[in-house]
Amino acid sequence: MPAPEAPSLLVIDDDPDIRKIVNLALTRLGGFHVIAVGSGEEALKLIQKNQFKVVILDMCMPHMDGEMTLRALREMPNMQGVPVVLLTAYACSRLPEDLAQWGISRILEKPFDPIELNRHIKEILKKE
Amino acid sequence: MEQTTKPPNEASRLRSLERLLPAEGFPRGLLQKTLEMTCKLTGFPMAAVSVVGENVQRFVATIGVSECEFDRENSVCAKAILSAQPTLIPDLSTDLRYANLTFTKATKMKAYAGIPLRTSNGEAIGMLCAFDLQARLLPPHLVVAFSSIAGMLMEALDERLCSSASENSDDSFLIAVFDSLTDVVLTVDASGAISSANHTVEKLFGIDRLRIIGQPIRRFLPNLFSEGKSSIRNPYATSNLLAILETMEMTARKDSGEPITVDVRAGRLLRRGSRTFTLVVRDASERKRIEKMKDEFIATISHELRTPLTVLRGALSLFDADLSKAEVKELLSLAQENTDRLVRLVNDILEIERLETGHIKLQPQFEPVAKLIEGILILLRPMAVARHIKLLAQHAVVNASIWCDKDRIIQTLTNLIANAISFAPPNTEVCVRTALTPEANLRFQVEDKGPGILPEQVGKLFQRFSQLGNRTAKTGGGAGLGLAIARAIVELHGGRIGVESAPGEGSNFWFELPGPLDFS
Fold it and tell me: What ipTM was assigned to the predicted interfaces of this complex?
């Protein structure tokens, strides 16, 4: 079980199996608190009441896709400067042009290795 | 008055007449020389080349008589062409066959000697004839020579036709070839003006082919000679050889100014000492559309493959971590499910390809409808029970058998029913109905009380990879190909497929097969 003071991460991906894997990896390998949701809308609701250290966001989702979610996140006061890791399913998927401006720390292409995801997040948090 | 009848080959005879003696390029000199020879040979003072048209007989060249015409019924020549032999009449006014004809009365002619002008196909287009106001008979020893003159005239006319045809034939043949092309073929002269165009310009550029000639090529292909781009360097500004071998894509302008994407291939040739450029222009919109579809298909397949692969890769990586027994068990089941998902996806991709390219042949026979559906329901009942769904079947026609490929229809119905079960809320019914339509097709219908489908999504539903966001579920087809496969199967049977649905009101997926049906 993660320590009570462990950082909280938000995972947004519409595929329940990927949420399970990412959740398990970040909880068991990284010792993080993880909340995983299936849509941008759910994420926005959660963010209103919770503070997260890193957001892991899937780009390709129905209705509200990764880019829309990211734009909405960045408009929320408690999301300013929170690092975002993008998960993409294909190399040619649409990405915001200026990645730095949107506070994107990493882009991981599926199928990614959860161990690598874990390492990326630790690096990001170390820099903070 | 004796009725003149027409020769049996009248229609082709008239066509030959028109071909051999056209109004344009009428061989007056040749006919006149023939008549001079005729008068000399026969000793008759008057002669004429007489043609027999559809309604009238006309002298088209004469010596000693005026060029005039008569109704076919009142013409000596119109009767004479009916005979294969020369017509030799010493005195028309005393011959009962000819005495009352307008020709005889009007011209006061007595002696008539005529040789039919016959084509090599035996069509008599008219007569070569000689006349005298005095009654006399052409001596028999001159008839053969007179016939030879007529024969030579016909040969000369025929030869003339062949040589004029061969003069034009290369050009007209090539023009016909270019007009049959679906690509636009243009030639551009050294000043950059369009000097010729095939018929296809009318379709591609929306301009009459005659109106495009003389216009600057820049108007239609503005980027053709733009410098510094990947298009042709201006061949008029430099002496560089124009040697474009690859096709270039560029934006062209129609006559209306509307832009279109085209592929252009240019070549250079020398024509009468000056440079001419040939351009082959092809509408690229169909190629672009197919490329876009292919890109989208690959992007979607790639996405659909990457998702289960991510889960598999993740599960394998995590086996090393310090996990509880329950967590390991969960990983194993995730890996198992996603392996199945990959297998289904790969199978579905192959299946839809084979169905849509027509590589699957149906193996139809009469199948009892109720029994076929009951078989499917037995297989799906465990899934329905697990989700607390009641599965029902209702048949409006009993004992019906339908001509279909059993395995393919089972596949289609299984897909529709499994979809319905996975989207229906617990404690509701999924009902499979069959009924006859007014067109005597058999309609299969699968009704659920699920969330329903938005009208704007209905159109996309039966396309490849169309899984709708809120209906995403790993049961059933899984990769968004299930309904596309169902549609392909139904259409292969000559039937149609559709859905009636509204958000919050459930969905009614149906398909109709034309049969035939058997009720025995």
Answer: 0.88
Query: What is the pTM for the complete model shown?
Result: 0.54
Q: Enumerate the residues of chain B whose CB falls inside 8 A of the CB of residue A92.
A: 299
Please check whether residue A62 touches B, CB under 8 A. Answer: yes
Give all strands (DSSP E) within B293-427, no chain letters.
365-368, 389-395, 401-404
- Least confident window among A94-103, B61-70, B304-313, B504-513: A94-103
CA distance B235 to B218: 13
Residues 292-331 of chain B whose Cβ lies under 8 A from any Cβ of chain A: 299, 302-303, 306-315, 317-318, 321-323, 327, 330-331
Domain extent at residue A22: 8-127
pLDDT tens-digit profile of B187-221? Answer: 888 788 898 898 889 889 998 888 888 899 888 98
pLDDT, tens digit (0-9, with 9 covering 90-100), for B453-478: 777 777 777 777 654 443 343 333 45
Q: Do B310 and A25 touch (CB under 8 A)?
A: no
Going from the N-terminus, what domains does chain B have, and what CATH number goes with each?
10-166 (3.30.450.40), 184-283 (3.30.450.20), 287-356 (1.10.287.130), 365-518 (3.30.565.10)
Task: Give the contacts of B429 (CB within 8 A, at least 6 positions apart).
Answer: B389, B390, B391, B392, B447, B449
- pLDDT for B158 beyond 90: no
Q: What angle, rounded to 10 degrees, do the helices at B285-318 and B325-356 form?
A: 160
Nearest residue of chain B to residue A13 (CA atoms): B307
Q: Distance between CA atoms of B63 and A87, rounded to whole angstroms?
A: 101
Question: What CATH number does residue A98 fall under?
Answer: 3.40.50.2300
